[in-house]
Amino acid sequence: MSDAWWRRAVIYEVYPRSFADGNGDGDGDLRGLRARLPYLRDLGVDGIWIAPWYPSPMADGGYDVSDFTGIHPLFGELADADAVIAEAHALGLRVITDMVANHTSIEHPWFAAALAAGPGSPERARYLFRDGRGDSGEEPPTNWISAFGGSAWTRITEANGAPGQWYLHLFAEEQPDLNWSDEAVRADFDRILRFWFDRGVDGMRIDAAPALAKAPAFPDADYGGDPRFVTIRWVGNPHWDVDAVHEVFRRFRGVADEYADRIFVAEAVVSSAERLAAYLGPDEMQTAFNFPYLKSAWDADALRSVIDDTLEQFVPIGVPPTWVTSSHDEVRLRTRFGRRTTSSAHFADGQGEAVDLELGLRRSRASALLTFALPGTAYLYQGEELGLPEVDDLPDGSITDPVFRRTGGETRGRDGCRVPMPWSGDEPPYGFSPDGITTWLPQPSGWDGLTVAAEEADPGSMLRLVRDALALRRSVPGLLGDEFRWVGRRDGVLEFDRGGGFTCVVNLSGSVVPIDATRPVLLASTAPVDGLLPNDAAAWLSR
User: Fold this and answer.
1) Is residue 468 flagged as an active site residue?
2) Of 27, 207, 415, 536, which is the active-site residue?
3) Do 127 and 96 share a domain, yes or no?
4) What is the pLDDT of residue 294?
5) Distance between the two ends of the chain, CA-based, in angstroms?
6) For 346, which of 118, 160, 162, 314 is 20 to 30 Å away at the CA?
7) Together in a domain, 200 and 162
8) Minimal CA–CA distance to 469: which of 44, 14, 29?
9) Cα–Cα distance for residue pair 164/15, rounded to 1 Å
10) Strand order in the sheet with 94-99
11) What is the pLDDT of residues 199-216, one digit of tens each?
């Protein structure tokens, strides 16, 4: 089996607008990221994934791209990106960037040309324009829905002022879907991939990977009575996980293989581990986010089933399992695990439920030890190493997520997990920006104990736990290999060996459980007492 760097890496997601402000304007930027790279090295991660840094009108947090080969002025310029890549490499960190291949911004020159050129033109063929249904084309071409609520179709006014065709946008109306059956689109993305690989980027995370192909006949979809964009439950959907998508990724892989050690990570929220495995292998993506694991409830049977399914699908094809628990699109783990609804089929699940943040923190600590003990790769979203909670009471006027607008305020959206990082100090902006500067999303009061500086000084903090776990992950022999074996089956308990005398025990049973008191405890989320592991706790044992 290959010893490639990405097979056992821990990758830290940076949401650049919310990570660190280097120029003092209240927005995170690449200068701020460069200054904090030593923190990430010391944390013990192997690389960073940077969410979109491209020019964008920011209709969807940067995922509406107007130039795939530039840097948003908020974040800096291409020279700053080059410096981030070079300095990360000098610190031993790999760099993965986001590739938003399904759609562009409505402000991208390609879309402006498509609107101007009219129906049937090569320019319009880059996108998915269709005539409407009804006597005058007044109805959308299909019943397809947007991830952010409402129809996935928007009608345009043609250059002559008449009502015109409709364009598809599986996300916001400011994000028109590209037509990946069009050779011009494919050729342009060959060029875009080479542009970033030539600059030293080590890999690309492919956003919304299952969306790139659509059923050619554009039939209506059967959503099973659920009007939400819950792709993890969709089977046979005409605009998600269509088999033709794999032609695109085989072409992507051909470009990456022109370079040494370049990888792809698929963001593929699909219905099963079997469907996810189809995106992986020697001619497609090297790795993929494991959304069944991310979205699983805090339940031993559910987690065990996901782990088994993942290993059964990935190991035989030589692909490393990937474990991820949160991202810029998900409710922060501490809040989610403190609610009654601990699963996350949709990012609005559990919205409005009461939250026990202490319970959520205990479970987050245990989840971290479970995740870092599993074989393969892992992802860590910025702030999760601090145990940050979701900010679920942002003022309405500060919310930028398009889902808030498109659902008439019914769904709060994802801004609550994107609030800027707290680095130091007793009050906002907590060292993210200079004192007195208002950050782009407001930080709450009461985060003084959750700053990096405060947690570095507290030996019992979440930060210290994560740092210790990542150091052990690099040094304990059992965690360096691929061995994995369940140990027995106790109700509510996950226990497995990784070889070399290493065992991980996670207690989700609702009561204390015994562990072998004769074995040294390498690390625990909550200290065992007299050989008893508390509920919602995890321990790493050695011989």
Assistant:
1) no
2) 207
3) no
4) 93
5) 27
6) 314
7) no
8) 44
9) 37
10) 287-288, 263-266, 203-206, 94-99, 47-50, 10-14, 377-381, 322-324
11) 999 999 999 999 999 999
Catalytic residue among 42, 77, 257, 258: 258
Residues contacting 253, CB < 8 A, separation 6+: 264, 283, 284, 285
Contact 537, 362 (CB under 8 A): yes
Q: What is the DSSP string of 184-201?
A: HHHHHHHHHHHHHHHTT-
In a domain, 355, yes or no: yes
Any domain includes 469? no
Residue 167 and residue 174: Cα distance in Å, rounded?
11
Strands of the sheet containing 129-130, edge to edge, are 129-130, 163-168, 153-157
Read off the pLDDT of residues 349-384 as tens digits, 9 standing for 90 and up. 888 899 999 999 999 999 999 999 999 999 999 999
Beta partners for residue 154, in sequence order: 167
Q: Tell me: the pLDDT tens digits for 246-287?
A: 999 999 999 999 999 999 999 999 998 889 889 998 999 999
Q: Contact 293/307 with Cβ under 8 angstroms? A: yes
Are 116 and 90 contained in the same domain?
no
CA distance 347 to 406: 15
- One-letter identity of residue 495: E
Number of structural domains, the chain?
A: 3
Residue 274 designated active-site? no
State the residue range of the domain holding 406: 5-102+183-456
